[in-house]
Specification:
Elements lengths: L4 H19 L4 H15 L2 H15 L4 H19 L6 E6 L4 E7 L2 E5 L8 H11 L3 E5 L5 H17 L7 E3 L7 H10 L2 E4 L3 H8 L5 E2 L6 E5 L6 H13 L9 E7 L3 H10 L2 E4 L4 H10 L18 H8 L9 E5 L18 E7 L2 H14 L3 E7 L3 H10 L2 E6 L41 E7 L9 H4 L2 H6 L1
Parallel strand pairs: 3-4, 3-6, 4-5, 6-7, 8-9, 8-13, 9-12, 10-11, 11-12, 13-14
Antiparallel strand pairs: 1-2, 2-15
Helix pairs in contact: 1-7, 2-4, 2-5, 2-6, 3-4, 3-6, 4-5, 9-10, 11-12
Length: about 475
């Protein structure tokens, strides 16, 4: 039977608009009650684990326990940073400028979501919408359609329990999940919040409607010679790279290590459960052909290795690794780009490793990797020299630099860093994005600015221009 996606999505949007019209009259207290109820109900331990298990079964990707932890961190974190914050009516009154600021909803939000974080992303985006009195329609990846529907149904139960219109949060019916429905959604909503692959995000930006999207991740990590506790660094990298089988776009895809400490670092990584495949090992070609089966013709990832365990990838590659291996590291000291696929993103607990002579050499290697893939997203460094962090902030074209922390457990916000908790990480113009920050509920608000007269603040030319400039003309 032919499906009229335009008509189907129009029906969802109409219901969303009707619900949002009611929400437009919600008080701050009502909004805060709803967000608190949703955040709590969706992070009850058995509920969070159930959705994690559902997604692993449906998608064949990731680790259920890690997904449960992700629900705790992302959902509770997103609620914690919006708790007590004004999002309704007058939110600021500046006597000095004479400007009052009012927060207003956008309308109906279209949320496009990836399979890799299909358990927490719908909850976080729903919280963002409810906090801002918007309605939201959640469009999942096909491999997360059933989980997305179940999560949405639970959120709707909470809304009904607390007397709010259930259609404030809707999901695309599993039978209708498709590229066509997502495209229609992006055409018909008031605003698009897109998390996923680069092609989808570019579609969001070209839909004709305002959008926030994210860029491709390909995190590069530097380990320098000032590190003293290599076991600690190795533990951070191994935990970050293996968490949820590297579903996050923020995992350490390429690691650059100073030659002077390379062996010491490699030894620590081995103790942390990482296997290092040497440049001249025949196993390198096996892993390469397993991750990118059609290289060099193309560099499409083998879908069967995405978010699989390191031991499963080793099995597929017919490579012997110790039991309990968490990460596979492959030396890549050659060039960059298409002829050296380990330079790119792998969406699995597989990392490329390079040696660097010194910090400047490491920076140049980092820049070349980002030129191939990952510009705008993020990088990290393990160091004791703050001046090196400053140098990276000045020249590396990314929006996030993580210092002495596990990258994927930090990038999207955590309890031990100041980044906003988010499932949508802006990558700036480097990553073809409209924002450079982690998107939060504040990005789903329109603002009304009211001006009142203030004392004249026009300066004289002597006050405004320096004597040097005035004399030059």
């Amino acid at each position: 039977m032919s499906i009229n996606y335009e008509e189907y999505i129009a029906g969802l949007v109409a219901k969303g608009k009707a619900a949002q019209k009611i929400a437009d009259g919600f008080s701050q207290e009502k909004v805060d009650e709803l967000t608190e109820a949703i955040a709590y109900a969706l992070t009850v331990p058995e509920t969070a684990l159930k959705f994690g298990e559902m997604l692993v079964e449906e998608s064949g990707m990731g680790v259920a326990k890690d997904k449960q932890l992700k629900m705790y961190g992302k959902v509770k974190g997103a609620f914690a940073q919006m708790k007590g914050k004004k999002s309704v009516g007058l939110i600021d009154s500046n006597k000095e400028t004479g400007i009052d600021t009012y927060a207003r909803p956008m309308g109906v939000i279209g949320a496009i979501m990836p399979v890799t974080n299909g358990e927490a992303t719908p909850v976080v985006k729903a919280l963002m919408a409810i906090k801002t009195r918007n309605a939201i329609i959640l469009a999942p990846h096909p491999k997360a359609r059933k989980t997305n529907w179940a999560v949405t149904e639970r959120i709707r139960e909470v809304l009904e329990k607390f007397g709010a219109p259930v259609d404030l949060v809707q999901a695309v019916d599993p039978e209708y999940v498709s590229l066509e429905s997502s495209q229609q959604l992006m055409k018909q909503v008031d605003f698009i919040l897109a998390t996923g692959g680069t092609p989808m995000v570019r579609q969001a930006y070209s839909s004709g409607n305002p959008a926030i999207g994210v860029g491709t991740g390909n995190v590069v990590c530097i380990v320098d010679e000032t590190v003293e506790d290599f076991d600690k660094v190795a533990d951070m990298i191994a935990r970050s790279k293996s968490f949820d089988n590297a579903t996050s776009c923020s995992t350490e895809n390429n690691i650059i290590v100073m030659e002077a400490v390379y062996d010491k670092w490699a030894g620590a990584m081995a103790k942390a459960g990482a296997v290092l495949i040497k440049e001249d090992s025949p196993d390198k070609e096996k892993v390469l052909k397993t991750v990118w089966p059609e290289t060099p013709a193309n560099h499409d990832l083998n879908r069967s290795i995405v978010a699989q365990s390191a031991t499963e990838i080793a099995r597929l590659a017919n490579v012997d690794v110790p039991e309990g291996t968490r990460v596979i590291m492959v030396e890549e000291n050659g060039g960059y780009g298409n002829d050296f696929p380990f330079t790119g993103e792998k969406l699995s607990p597989v990392a490329g490793v390079r040696k660097a002579k010194d910090f400047e050499d490491a920076l140049q290697k980092m820049l070349k990797i980002l030129d191939y893939q990952g510009k705008g997203h993020s990088v990290s460094i393990h160091t004791k020299k703050d001046e090196r962090v400053t140098k990276m902030g000045e020249i590396i074209p990314v929006c996030k630099i993580v210092v002495n922390q596990p990258q994927s457990l930090t990038n999207s916000g955590s309890w031990t860093c100041g980044y906003p908790v988010s499932m949508t990480l802006g990558c700036g113009t480097w990553g073809h994005n409209s924002i450079s920050h982690n998107a939060t509920w504040k990005d789903l608000l329109n603002f009304v600015y009211v001006s009142r007269e203030i004392p004249n603040w026009q300066p004289t030319d002597d006050e405004l221009f320096s004597e040097k400039i005035r004399k030059a003309f």
